[in-house]
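# step 3/5: fold
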Amino acid sequence: MKTLALVSRKGGAGKTTLAVNLSLTAHLAGWKTLLADIDPQRSASDALRTRGDPGPVLAEINAGKLFQTRSQAVHDAYDVMLIDTPAAPDADVAVAVNSADLCLLVCRPTFLDIASVARSAEMVRRLGKAGLIVLNQAPPKRGGSEPASVQQAVEALRFCGLPIAPVGLRSRTIYQQAIARGLSVGEWDAGAPAAQEIDRLWSHIAALITLDARGRDARAI
């Protein structure tokens, strides 16, 4: 089983929306998926409880129960566990990072978000974990070109010492429309650009966590 921790110490970055969409995408792709919600706000739990169809298994826990929950998930042969983390305290975030095979650092293209991600990236590196920065809520391209704010954010994020996901997510109302009904954006509208973004991002993440250095399927490791 592989574990993903979604991290953002800056409120409003879209961490929970991404956690729900990735967990639903994994579930619909045939992965046995567990979403561990350790954020006291329980936003991920609220979203999945509105869902009518079967979805990922939900664990509403605190950071202190992460090890036990992960061990049980391994025993129950889950393929992937996603952790929706709180913005604070740092100790809870560190427990999630330490439990993860890959940490997804969610960041909007703003100065304060980038500063927050830089601190999170330092924690990920200090704990010896793999990390991936996901640029979220980026403004749309204009005339086929990236806005200056996105270009500047990407350049600044390179100094965090972690790779940046090749797929960025745009600011789109469909994310909120879908999550309000416990759906992924792909379920809401499979042909929407947002659905394509999430599918491409999940494909990239899945490749990172299922293949070891020799290219073998490592999902059960």
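# step 4/5: annotate
The mean pLDDT is 93.
# step 5/5: archive (pending)
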